[in-house]
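Subject: design request, 303 residues
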């Protein structure tokens, strides 16, 4: 996938089919739009293009970092992703100017795909009706995708954020259509876990929304290879004060490589238990052993 950063660097592509949106989280609804754009581009011999924004126009905490989002977009077979810097000056651009200057003049879109609730332009005044008028005047086809539901629940990034923050992994996964995950860099910690007998990789996440404090059974992706592991998220209440920052640590089973500075993806399978303060380090160590046994049982049942 070709990635273009900034409006000035946009170039023309044959018969562009443009999926327009933030696509934070790449949930089921988002992926439906993007896959449809890929199919349409193949049908007309055109170019599937995602036009997205960073940072989030509504200043929402990010479910995925831009890098993670781009990875997921690429996996869906999109040809080109255009990332527009959502700066203060860009936020002032009117909806009509956005359509005329970018979608029509810069990209020359033949097809534009959006979700029903997508808004754009200054003050989020632009919506599907304005695009429908522009489509007639500029000879492009607009397709508006309905909101998708899982049961009675509407799939939305807002709902997914809340589930993740509360540690409701299964509910979030149901809306995402895949595992909740964190992409982050391995950083050095205080080696307490090593002292306890369970060396961990400390993770600096590249995005803002992380699961609630607790112990989780996880899969860890490193260099396209999958490992089983256990992840801790919390403030280390047994050894730290209330003002301690949130730590993310993962113990990877049967893994002995030096991965400082490397990129890991942690995929969450199940919450084992909430975070808890123990009376002694020995009690904490004994509980971790039990947690690992629980994780291994769960992972044997996980494909």
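Subject: RE: design request

Done. Sequence follows.
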């Amino acid at each position: 996938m070709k990635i273009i950063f900034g409006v000035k660097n946009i170039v023309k592509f044959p018969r562009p089919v443009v999926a327009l949106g933030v696509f934070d989280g790449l949930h089921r609804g988002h992926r439906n739009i993007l896959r449809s754009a890929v199919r349409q581009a193949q049908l007309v011999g055109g170019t599937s293009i995602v036009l997205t924004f960073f940072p989030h126009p509504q200043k929402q905490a990010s479910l995925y970092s831009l890098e993670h989002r781009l990875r997921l977009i690429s996996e869906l077979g999109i040809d080109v992703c255009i990332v527009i810097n959502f700066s203060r000056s860009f936020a002032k651009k009117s909806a009509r100017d956005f359509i005329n200057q970018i979608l029509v003049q810069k990209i020359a879109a033949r097809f534009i795909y959006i979700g029903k609730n997508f808004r754009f332009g200054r003050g989020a005044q632009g919506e599907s009706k304005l695009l429908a008028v522009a489509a007639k005047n500029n000879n492009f086809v607009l397709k508006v995708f309905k909101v998708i539901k899982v049961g009675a629940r509407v799939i939305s990034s807002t709902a997914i954020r809340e589930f993740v923050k509360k540690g409701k992994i299964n509910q979030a996964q149901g809306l995402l259509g895949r595992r909740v995950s964190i992409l982050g860099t391995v950083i050095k910690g205080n080696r307490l876990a090593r002292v306890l007998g369970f060396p961990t990789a400390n993770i600096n996440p590249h995005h803002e929304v992380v699961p609630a404090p607790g112990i989780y059974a996880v899969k860890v992706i490193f260099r396209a290879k999958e490992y089983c592991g256990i992840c801790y998220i919390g403030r280390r209440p047994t050894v730290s004060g209330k003002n301690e920052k949130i730590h993310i640590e993962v113990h990877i089973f049967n893994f002995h490589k030096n991965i400082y500075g490397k990129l890991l993806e942690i995929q969450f399978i199940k919450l084992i238990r909430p975070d808890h303060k123990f009376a002694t380090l020995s009690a904490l160590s004994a509980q971790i052993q039990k947690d690992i046994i629980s994780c291994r049982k769960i992972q044997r049942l996980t494909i």
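The chain has two domains: 2-146, 179-300.
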